[in-house]
Amino acid sequence: MALEEPQQKRQLGHDEFDPVGTLALIGLYFLVLVAMWLFMYFVEFLGNDPTVVGTLVTGGAI
Predict the structure, then answer these.
(1) To the nearest whole number, what is the mean pLDDT of the chain?
(2) Which residues of the chain have pLDDT under 50?
(3) Is 29 within a domain?
(4) pLDDT, position 13
(5) By residue range, what is the domain housing residue 26?
(6) pTM higher than 0.70, yes or no?
(7) For tag attachment on the chain, is the N or C end more exposed, with fewer CB atoms within 10 Å?
């Protein structure tokens, strides 16, 4: 038994298209970037000298 495809397919117009999934992925990506920035700020820079700038200014001497 073969499945028959419907003869008429629904076409979405420009006004009917609602990309909720794309918006959700962009929001999730933004939240990941914010979490990474917070992690880097609190772990790497809070209470410590910046490692890259510190080694460049002092010439690598600690």
Answers:
(1) 75
(2) 54
(3) yes
(4) 75
(5) 21-58
(6) no
(7) N
